[in-house]
Amino acid sequence: MLAILALTAVARPWQRVWVKPTSKVGVLRLESGTNAPLVFSGVAGVGQAAPILEQAAGPRDALFEMQARLVREISTIRDPTTIPILLRLLDLPRSWERLEILDAIRAINSPESVPSLVRMLDDPYPDNAFAAMQGLLELAGGGAIDWVPSLPEFRENPSYYAQRCRASWAAHEQQP
């Protein structure tokens, strides 16, 4: 079980903000006009300080930069015990955040992620739906599948390929 640690950091454009990981995952709240909860993974190692933010043009730029770095760190998580947390993060509002989370989920390759991957086939951002499709195909054993498109082909008709993936996954579940 992972501990959730609430940290508070006040980011000023001239400050360097450090978050010291004291647990595997912590929730970081940035107080700069918004109070957006973010998750930070202590990938740098316990006891090491991880640089999160250097100089930025203003508070909103600082917030965006911090969010981007945190989400990139989350995408490197490979611990299967984090799957429940990662699956909840698929509800983040920005498409690029969800794509980074999908990278972590795919790398863990856990059957526990199947319902969320199927749901992500309908993500309005085609790159996320494509990543979800790849995750499902990897869980099914991968290999050469004649109907699997390239990313540019998928972007042309994501709903068609999402449906093909659902049908393929259903057939895979029917196998003994």
Explained architecture:
The protein is an alpha+beta fold and 176 residues long. The protein has two domains: 4-74, no CATH class; 80-174, no CATH class. It contains seven helices and five strands, in the order βββββααααααα. The chain has helices spanning 59-74, 83-89, 95-108, 114-120, 126-139, 151-156, 158-174; strands at residues 4-9, 17-19, 25-30, 37-41, 50-53. A three-stranded mixed β-sheet has the order 1-3-4. A two-stranded antiparallel sheet has the order 2-5. Helix 1 packs parallel to helix 3 (95-108) and helix 2 runs antiparallel to helix 3. Residues 1-56 have low confidence and may be disordered.
Brief summary:
Helix content is 46%, strand content 14%. The chain is an alpha+beta fold.
Parts with pLDDT < 50 across at least 5 consecutive residues? 1-56
Q: Count up the domains.
A: 2
For the biggest β-sheet, the strand order reads: 1-3-4
Q: Give the mean pLDDT.
A: 75
Quickly give the structural class.
alpha+beta
Give the end-to-end Cα distance, rounded to a whole number of Å. Answer: 33 Å
Helix/strand order: EEEEEHHHHHHH
Radius of gyration: 18 Å
Question: What gross morphology would you assign?
Answer: globular
Largest sheet: 3 strands, mixed
Number of helices, counting only DSSP H or I runs of 4 residues or more: 7
Strand content: 5-15%
The helicity comes to 40-55%
Structure summary, number of beta strands: 5
